[in-house]
Amino acid sequence: RVENRARSPLRIGLCCRRLMSAAAESIHTLADLAAWSFSGPALAVIGRPVAHSLSPAIHNAALAVIARAQTHFADWRYFKFDIAPEELPQALALFHQRNFHGLNLTVPHKSLAVEHLVTCDAFVRAAGAANTLTRTEAGWHGANTDGYGLATALREELGAELTGAHVILLGAGGAARGAAIECLRARCASLWIGNRTAATLDALLANLQVFAGESAVRGFDLANPPLGLPPGATVINATSLGLSTADAAPIDLKKLPAPARVYDMIYRPPQTTLLRQAAELGMPGANGLSMLIHQGARALEIWTGATAPVPVMQAAARAALFPA
Questions:
Q1: Is the pTM of the predicted complex or chain greater than 0.85?
Q2: Does residue 254 carry a catalytic annotation?
Q3: DSSP output for 14-75
Q4: DSSP single-letter state for residue 187
């Protein structure tokens, strides 16, 4: 019922713009958290960098629509926090003390937070990374909705399935870990993981072997791609290269054997250097906005138990990226 009431493009657009102006996207810090005084149920995204995050606009718009049908959500709000890696243990303790209901984790916290969880789901145990935390009395419970968001985005944006696909995954951090587990869970034909730091790559490859099944899992140096990479692969960027417009692409697509498509998890800026090169080479490509929305929708459902209004979240994301 919530989704049906929100499908009018005009209504969605007006709702999103009101929420974006009403809920200022201030970037909060650890010091702000220590002095926190907001009395309602609070959610937040934490990361560094985090200024680019659209999550507050997306989630606050969705919460406003959900609250129309379920009024006890009317005082829920979603915030943005810049937290350094060394601040994470103290921050998680403070978020818990301040009764935050849930947290989203972005770079670089997805892997770092795992050791601070009291419980987690099977996906987090497999990936060694969490992106969605839910408060319990004992501490934080971890989940990972990135795999669901990625698979849904590939299907929606590029008409691609992971099952039976050859995948070239760029990066070996927290975002890549979730993507790798989803690829193997979907029984991809092969998974090639490129990274510049050999130790990080080797640790991920060792962790993935138990989940590989019949899927071939290989690693390579991003700076020197091997000749044996498969043609027609789905290339997925899970590195942070591209968050700045000055960033080079994480890999030169010309060094790969004719990929079928390119998906960049970065959504801001909307077109990274990698996606520009894909377009120049005639390869279908998409940015990570759809992944952000679908992983966020699943997280919101975990926190609230309500059906996430995905069209509202999509409209809020577009309004935030391209303000009138």
A1: yes
A2: no
A3: HHHHHHHHHS---EE-HHHHHT----S-EEEEEESS-TT--HHHHHHHHHHHHHHHSGGGTT
A4: T
